[in-house]
Amino acid sequence: MAAPSTPLSATASDSGVDRLSALLERFRVRAHLFHAGPLCGVTHFAAQPGRAFLHVLRRGDMEVTHRPQSGAPRTLRLTEPTLLFYPRPLDHDFHNAPVDGSDFVCATLDFDGGVRHPLVQALPSVLALPVRQVQGIEQTLQLLFAETERVRCGQRLLADRLFEVLLLQMLRWLLDHPAEGGVQAGVLAGLSHPKLARALTALHEQPGAAWSLDALARAAGMSRSAFAAEFKAAVGTSPGDYLLRWRVAIAQAQLRGGAAVKSVSDSLGYASPAAFSRAFTQVVGASPRAWLQGDRDPMH
Fold first, then answer.
1. pLDDT tens, 173-225?
2. Which helix (H) or strand (E) holds 167?
3. CA distance 235 to 103
4. Are 104 and 38 in contact (CB under 8 A)?
5. Distance between CA 265 and CA 16 in Å, rounded?
6. Which of helix, strand or coil describes residue 177?
7. What structural domains and CATH numbers belong to the chain?
8. Would the pLDDT of 1 be above 70?
9. Cα–Cα–Cα angle for 223, 17, 276, nearest 5°?
10. CB atoms within 10 A of CB 20
């Protein structure tokens, strides 16, 4: 097998690093509009395995409640146009009287890999983001509400895509405001770091490259020791462990798609299928073939 390609050195400035595309190209998100219009009384949204929700409050006041010990605030009071994002399955209830005039569009979001999607694992349980805080989002919302006000050809497809644009705009905001957004240790915190983001983005773009701690530190423009310490603090794991888990997550997606073990091994830079199988088993607890055979749940 040919040796893994050499990692590209990161010479782009922080503003020139696209921190999200490689991540979302590997692990896609699909939105599906399911409601447009007012809501009255109490509306319950049940947690569903592998499913996220994105709601947009267009106008009016609303109270949102969550069950005790759910990890989310017991009550949220919304008093202005707001994006309400649930990246993981979580029961929630909307309370609003008919006279409030609250107006909504709502979509479900399906993340590749479900709760194992790298972004899902890094996001807070709920994000209530006032529309006024996100620059440029008004134009997207105008298009979205225009599409949901009357039936037109391709309406649902276009609305779905606009919800995906909204999600990207929210993620951009989170990368620029991690503390305000409640971002904990994880990939989003790492991508919010001006130097770590260079190394993480390069790793995401080239998972099969011959990455070493020295190579990643050079990509970040940091010393080896400083990079290792700051990476662990921001992401919550060592660079080597993150790389291993990133490769295994990609491998799982490729195996589900019908790729052969040897093909996956080659694409991820392993010296042999046996070396790949050992790395996979270290993370998953089963060999690639055994895992695939037992993987009957698409969200597993």
1. 999 999 888 888 899 999 999 999 999 999 999 999 999 999 999 999 999 99
2. helix 155-176
3. 38
4. yes
5. 31
6. coil
7. 21-176 (2.60.120), 193-294 (1.10.10.60)
8. no
9. 70
10. 17
